[in-house]
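Researcher: We plan to redesign the surface later, but first we want a full-length starting point. Tokens attached.
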């Protein structure tokens, strides 16, 4: 992380820039600053033991005042105009705690408020037009959730570069919540890679890929047929083909991912078991799969399109086939990822409460057999990614640039906190397409519990 600038003296009086800004913020926010503020002139204000926020330039202040709220603060951090030396997550946690305790909201400035702020900006030499936003903003056009716009939205996030994700993720390239069968640090050698392996095994077992009689064709083509919708970099596809003998159709809208998975399929000699398709799920015309999985892809489908998505899942598995959806969830009053996430990470994302997703799967004709929350597991997964980002910071900035690296530091810090504080969740939902007689055709199903062990 970029170090805060050093000064010979620290001015704490109200005459310094920090003191003036703190007084103005207290009036607009209805309470004192929950953080310690250091301004570009070296002055400081705010609680001495609170996380430090460094306002490095007048341009950073203009970002905050022209666009008050989450997005303005995020862009000031991304550009380096604002810094949070130390633990970014702890700084965010402090602000969220103050928001809950004092009811803080982004200020809605009246004309007189803006005039007063402008007068202060003039006095401290920070008056000026809004700065240009960072280059990493998503700029999508076209009809929401049209095939072309969906492709652009997926490309914005997942086509950053295969090299970037290879640096961040475990060797399987699983970019989703792991399943920590053991507490982090409880056993030497058990870490992110092992948690992702255990997640892939859990998914395959829930889908019945290892059960006798699943996959009915005899001879060399034997093995269960699996549809992997939104296959990412192929972690589930390759694991199911190598360890469960599955015949997999893997689908992705990302050209970078499709090329990566095809290369790994060739390297492992799995061409006869894996077919990779670079297409939209709406273009699939297959049917009769023994199982279908979609791992953290449903968030990209869209609110209006989700019933069509669940109907497609129902139609592509055979009667008695299984469907596993691993998907993030959010409260009914906050269905999206927030302004920062939707602008810089996952445009057009939509999340819903778990119960709504269960209802949509049932309306499509699927019978939901089990749900399991992995919320705490995502806290540990994101923490592992964040440690990798910090430990290899220079490599990330050299590869993707400082602004992109700072986008990801903020993204991981905020995401980990959202799961830890139960503002977001992630769940595995197992469903089945019933047989004509009403039977689900399932034997015993692992639910993913810990049998009284950790946590």
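Model: Full-length starting sequence:
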């Amino acid at each position: 992380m970029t170090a805060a600038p050093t000064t010979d003296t620290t001015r704490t009086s109200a005459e310094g820039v920090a003191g003036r800004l703190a007084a103005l913020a207290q009036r607009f926010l209805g309470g004192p600053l929950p953080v310690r503020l250091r301004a570009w002139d070296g002055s400081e204000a705010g609680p001495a033991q609170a996380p430090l926020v460094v306002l490095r330039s007048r341009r950073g202040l203009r970002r905050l005042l022209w666009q008050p709220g989450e997005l303005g603060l995020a862009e000031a951090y991304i550009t380096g105009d604002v810094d949070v030396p130390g633990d970014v997550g702890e700084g965010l946690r402090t602000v969220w705690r103050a928001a809950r305790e004092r009811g803080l909201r982004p200020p809605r400035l009246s004309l007189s408020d803006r005039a007063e702020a402008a007068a202060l900006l003039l006095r401290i030499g920070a008056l000026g037009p809004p700065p240009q936003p960072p280059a990493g903003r998503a700029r999508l056009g076209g009809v929401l959730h049209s095939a072309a716009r969906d492709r652009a939205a997926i490309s914005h996030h997942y086509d950053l570069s295969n090299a970037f994700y290879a640096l961040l993720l475990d060797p399987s390239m699983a970019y989703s919540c792991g399943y920590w069968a053991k507490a982090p640090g409880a056993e030497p050698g058990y870490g992110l890679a092992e948690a992702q392996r255990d997640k892939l095994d859990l998914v395959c077992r829930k889908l019945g890929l290892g059960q006798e009689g699943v996959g009915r064709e005899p001879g060399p083509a034997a093995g269960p047929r699996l549809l992997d919708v939104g296959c990412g970099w192929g972690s589930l596809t390759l694991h199911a083909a190598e360890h469960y003998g599955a015949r997999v159709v893997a689908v992705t809208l990302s050209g970078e991912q499709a090329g990566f998975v095809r290369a790994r399929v060739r390297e492992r000699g799995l061409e006869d078991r894996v077919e990779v398709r670079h297409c939209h799920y709406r273009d699939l015309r297959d049917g009769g799969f023994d199982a279908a999985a979609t791992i953290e892809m449903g968030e990209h489908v869209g609110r209006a399109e989700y019933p069509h998505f669940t109907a497609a899942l129902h139609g592509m598995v055979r009667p008695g086939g299984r469907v596993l959806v691993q998907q993030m969830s959010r409260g009914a009053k906050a269905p999206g990822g927030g302004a920062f996430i939707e602008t810089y990470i996952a445009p057009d994302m939509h999340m819903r409460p778990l119960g709504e997703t269960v209802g949509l799967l049932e309306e499509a004709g699927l019978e939901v057999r089990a749900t399991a929350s992995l919320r705490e597991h995502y806290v540990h997964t994101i923490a592992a990614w964040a440690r990798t980002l910090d430990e290899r910071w220079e490599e990330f900035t050299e590869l993707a640039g400082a602004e992109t690296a700072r986008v990801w530091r903020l993204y991981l810090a905020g995401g980990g906190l959202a799961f830890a504080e139960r503002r977001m969740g992630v769940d595995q939902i197992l469903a089945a397409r019933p047989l004509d007689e009403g039977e689900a055709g399932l034997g015993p199903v692992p639910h993913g519990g810990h049998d009284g062990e950790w946590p």
